[in-house]
Amino acid sequence: MGESKYPGCIDNSSLLREDGRLRKNVVEELDYVIVPSAAWEKLSAFFGVAANQQPIERKVIKHGVYSKSCKIELYLMDFNLGLLCQPGHAITQEFSRTDQIGYVHWKIRKLFKIDPSRETRVWNRFMSNTYEQLGDHDNTVQEASLYQGQVILLEVREKDGGWTRKKDSSGGYTESDLAQYRREETPQGEKMVSVMEGLHGDFATFLQQRETEYKQQEEMLSDSFNRFVYQAKVRFGEEEKSLNERQEELNERDRVLRQLENDYQQRSDALEEEWKKLNEEKVDFNKNCMEKEEQFRKERQEFREMCETREKDLDDKKQEIEKREEELETEKRQMLELNKIQSNKIKLDVGGNLFSTSMTTLTKEADSMLAVMFSGRHPLKTDDDGSYFIDRDGTHFRYVLNYLRDGGVKEGTLPTDAQILKEIRNEAEYYQLEGLGKTIDDMRANLGDETEED
User: Fold this and answer.
1) What is the pLDDT of residues 221-274, one digit of tens each?
2) Which end of the chain has fewer CB atoms within 10 angstroms, the N or the C?
3) Three-state SS across 56-118?
4) Which runs of consecutive H residues, i.e. helices, occur in 344-411?
């Protein structure tokens, strides 16, 4: 049996704050273990308790509104206790939810050292100026619906027999009236002495029982040892026989292993020779691969150059085809324009001069007088030869038609004589051709500048 070591006295300091109260968020089975009072007394008597520490006593309370269940009241409730005449001076004390109002009343009297013969009452202040008397002293804190941080004030009857809160003249309680709720707080040292006396008798009985058990165990061990010696002799004989058989088996296995070793060496030599051949083949293979790779590189370069040449030829052919398509498209538009002109050919008699043109040419400028005449909105009469007569001088009408056909004035198509330009300008104004008129105005202005310079 191993030697047991004394673990030291019971120390609950890790569970307590500096003010001696229980720390928040402690976890059962991890930070602490709850034991019954009787077990605590025996443990504290045997191991001892750290100096200046009191037991952390907790009660079992009923929990729940509709379905009640029992649980350990781990954290007590803090009440702020004070005197009704001095509400600003309060003392914080912890109470269990199972404590009766009578005990709370007695505790306040004790804290503030009230004369035992003076009557007192307790009040619950739940707002700044709202009070409720705690009259039923048999109710528990939980039944009275008191909450954490509740302010409970003690009212002392005045010497003239009146109360501070005169609206309520009910009777109070003296020290003797609260005797049934009083609790005697036994010092820890007296508890230890009582427990030690009980343990002394238990320890003597324990020693006698252990002595009897040791004698019985000694006899059982002696018999067991004798049986063990006999069984060991028999077992050793069997083991010796088994070892001899095992030795012969190992010798046979050693012979087989040596034969296998010889076979392995021969196989290893054969593999070494084969490995040399494979290395030579590998060198030849790598050489062939390099030659093939070089050949492939040259062929790929030649193929790339050929592709680039073909691509260039294709681009040239593509450009040639696109150019041809543009020429064909231009030719097609010209033919369509020619067909359109031929389909709506019109003959004009301008001041006795005959001109042939098309409806497309005459209506090219929508705001001109010619476009309005041949828009179809106005009925026009034709001569016997099918021509339309316009009562204007036809000498310069060909300049008007060329302007409409070309969509503007081509360079060198108008004369440079100022008088002729003036006459053509009059025709442009008559036919309402603003573009032609502006072009002539610019030409006349340029001619005027040149004349001044000369």
Assistant:
1) 877 888 888 888 888 888 888 888 889 999 999 999 999 999 999 999 999 999
2) N
3) CCCCEEEECCCCCEEEECCCCEEEEEEECCEEEEEEEEEECCCCEHHHHHHHHHHHCCCCCCC
4) 359-362, 369-373, 397-406
